[in-house]
Amino acid sequence: xxxxxxxxxxxxxxxxxxxxxxxxxxxxxxxxxxxxxxxxxxxxxxxxxxxxxxxxxxxxxxxxxxxxxxxxxxxxxxxxxxxxxxxxxxxxxxxxxxxxxxxxxxxxxxxxxxxxxxxxxxxxxxxxxxxxxxxxxxxxxxxxxxxxxxxxxxxxxxxxxxxxxxxxxxxxxxxxxxxxxxxxxxxxxxxxxxxxxxxxxxxxxxxxxxxxxxxxxxxxxxxxxxxxxxxxxxxxxxxxxxxxxxxxxxxxxxxxxxxxxxxxxxxxxxxxxxxxxxxxxxxxxxxxxxxxxxxxxxxxxxxxxxxxxxxxxxxxxxxxxx
Length: 322
Ligand code: ADP
Ligand code: F6P
Fold this sequence. Notes:
Blueprint: E1 5-10, H1 18-31, E2 35-39, H2 43-48, E3 51-53, H3 81-94, E4 98-103, H4 105-116, E5 120-125, H5 141-161, E6 165-170, H6 177-185, E7 190-192, H7 200-213, E8 219-224, H8 230-241, E9 245-249, H9 261-279, E10 285-290, E11 293-298, H10 299-304, H11 311-320
Parallel strand pairs: 1-2, 1-4, 4-5, 5-10, 6-8, 6-9, 7-8
Antiparallel strand pairs: 2-3, 10-11
Helix pairs in contact: 1-9, 5-6, 6-11
Bound molecules: adenosine-5'-diphosphate and 6-O-phosphono-beta-D-fructofuranose.
């Protein structure tokens, strides 16, 4: 048997900590005597042969950098069976028998397809959204939340000076985890997430009125991207309560920046685990964090799992943010 050759790619939306994961994959693979290739721009790199052999120094000085040195992309061609066969053929021509795919659940569906086409793949959860059901944590979540809270603390300063209400939209696609944890961390008067049904009168207006009665004059409302509508909500609050109200959509600022210690450590552990699995000839798995341990799941099992929202934390936020 020839030398074990693996590759690593980042796919879908980027997330702070992806570089730390790439670094861990490259160095763990080299430590096991494998050859390791970096694939540029997600699955597109496998289709175009945009692949480069990495060495220990290829990943120097990147652990603290946001973005991804491998770039990322969404590839329509790879979603087709022909695309998947072409990507597998390019891997086989290079002798690559395993690929670590760092991304979200779309990228994992791609990893399953590539495994079915004959190249073992391991998924590593890299997305700020924390929306991978099988994992308590996804790489980038902590950094994104810390960026959001930094921004909201600044918004609070000006909301306070002007006795205003500020409605802030945070990212998360269909997942309310960023909104929930950021909301509790900034003492938001209301947190709106897609996982919990709400009524604007009861869950926003009444909560502001009740807080006003205790003497508070400025308010932060955190809204998940999956709920949206912050501009309309700001207009409604202003008309309904005669409180000057502003809306802010934090947007892509949450996707960048130097990863936190948590993201660097988790990314390092998950990247290392992915290589460990490939080294044993195991594919079609997703690396995950469960109860602070790094574990792995079958990709299909992982993709079929329902996400559980932390309703307990949501209820506590409602009680104490008043
Ligand atoms: P994320 O990984 O962040 O969820 P996307 O959903 O955009 O991001 O998926 C990233 C890429 O993964 C897509 O552009 C596509 O190339 C690949 N992909 C997504 N879904 C599938 C699928 N069902 N089959 C094969 N490849 C897929
Ligand atoms: O998945 C990460 C994420 O930032 C989501 O929170 C958001 O819905 C989406 O990606 C934005 O995608 P794009 O970078 O294509 O605008």
